[in-house]
Amino acid sequence: RVVMTRDEAWQTIGLEQMMIPRGAGNRPGTVITPKFVTIHNTDNAAAGADARAHGRYLAGADARARKVSWHFTVDDQRVCQHLGTGELGWHAGSGPGNRQSVGIEICMNAGIDQAAANRRAAHLTALLLHDLDLPLSAVVQHHHWTGKDCPRLLRQGNGWPTFIAAV
Asked: Per the confidence metrics, is the pTM higher than 0.85?
């Protein structure tokens, strides 16, 4: 077991800022106090649909028009942040999921090392729980809010219990 500072732990996940521009239609600027961390899969299996590609998508016209946004996208190499954790994102339905949670999208694109992406997402989740002073029970699936089969890959087999154990 390696002991490191909070800042060192954040550095190990490969965090990159790809913030949605202020004033964009998918960044309402509403302040929230998160009580949950909501886990998603991107459901985008296209080659090249990594964290940076999703960051570019969030900055574009389609995401703005659809009013879709989330806080972090994770792949097997990096974590891209798109919103501050104290800002509302539109990722978990129209109700409390958006108003009460930080959204993490885990990539599932062709060629990804899915196990590495899941480990990186678990590490990010643990850091967020620490920073937001939330218990492990605050980690929920998108399914929790809407009944959608998401995060689809983690909902298969022993995926969710394995993810929670990694957190």
From this structure: yes
Q: Which residues contact 124 (CB under 8 A, 6 or more apart)?
A: 13, 72, 74, 79, 104
Instruction: Give the list of residues 6+ apart from residue 135 with CB closer than 8 angstroms, or none.
Output: 129
H-type alpha helices, 12-147: 51-58, 61-66, 96-100, 114-132, 142-146
Please tell me what DSSP assigns to residue 19. Answer: P
CA distances from 88 to 26, 29, 91, 132 (A): 10, 7, 9, 15
What does the pLDDT look like over 92-136, one tens digit per residue? 987 899 999 999 999 999 999 999 999 999 999 999 999 999 999
Give the Å distances, CA to CA, from 155 to 110, 152, 162: 19, 5, 10
Instruction: Specify the DSSP class assigned to residue 15.
Output: E
Q: Which two tokens stand for residue 12?
A: 């190990």
